[in-house]
Amino acid sequence: MILGRLNHVGVATPSIDDSIAFYRDVMGATAIGEPFDLPAQGVRVCFVDTPPSTGSGRGTQIELIEPLGDASPIRGFIEKSPAGGQHHVCYEVPDIHAAKAWFEAKGVRVLGEPRIGAHGTPIFFLHPRGTGGVLTEIMEAPGDGH
Amino acid sequence: MILGRLNHVGVATPSIDDSIAFYRDVMGATAIGEPFDLPAQGVRVCFVDTPPSTGSGRGTQIELIEPLGDASPIRGFIEKSPAGGQHHVCYEVPDIHAAKAWFEAKGVRVLGEPRIGAHGTPIFFLHPRGTGGVLTEIMEAPGDGH
Q1: A52, A89, A128 ranked by CB distance to B53: nearest
Q2: pLDDT digit string (tens) for A55-109?
Q3: Does residue B71 sit at the A interface (CB-CB below 8 Å)?
Q4: Which residues of A touch B85 (CB under 8 A)?
Q5: What is the dihedral of CA A105, A143, A2, B92, to 10 degrees?
Q6: Chain B touched by A9 (CB under 8 Å)
Q7: Which are the catalytic amino acids of B?
Q8: Do A101 and A108 meet the contact criterion of CB atoms below 8 Å apart?
Q9: What domains are there in chain B, each with its CATH number?
């Protein structure tokens, strides 16, 4: 497997609204998506674009994630880090099933079956125990690039 | 201020050698720099390139950092997370002093004076208390892009 593009860095937050204000007013982000609920993942999501290195490219996004529902998988993270913080990184792959087989063959634990992620394409997570402590999402690259 | 490019994601590791093997053999990275010591920062550093969205662009790098010396600022991080993990994110700015003045005016605590970072340009860190829990490095963009 060839390392794919770093699609986004997942940042957990207790309040997407507050984080949007921070990225807009302090960090100077000029392209911030509309927040939306992703009930299947137990999170509310908002993508913040960072600039690409060239005009026609795409930068790695910041994916703001806020707990959604009592069973949200990031509720524990926010309880431990009430201000929020870095939660995961996400790399693109061309084929989610080939990627799953690859990581399993390498002995890295895949957390569950591929499911639809925030960009509308199949994703899975790798257990941080097998990735140097970094919770890692693998996503099938969407046709339109984001 | 306009949000700059996400230059890299800093990943702390107890062993850069082991992390290089992981990024090469499991994640499939094809462009990994030579590790080097950065004694002034108390870290050993190695950059892993991730692919850009277009052929001529540059992707966000993974900056592997290993504690260097007993006073390393990331020694505590590794003691708390022995396997390593996400440590910081780093955005580029055109002018480090203008950026420092901007963040100070916004009430975000700047940690120390600008100093030379791993890419050879001036950098500073923002306290995570002012950035939604994300330790954030600000670096002056080098002329050659990385």
Answers
A1: A52
A2: 788 999 999 999 999 999 999 999 999 999 999 999 999 999 999 999 999 999 9
A3: no
A4: 128, 132-134
A5: -120
A6: yes
A7: 137
A8: no
A9: 6-140 (3.10.180.10)
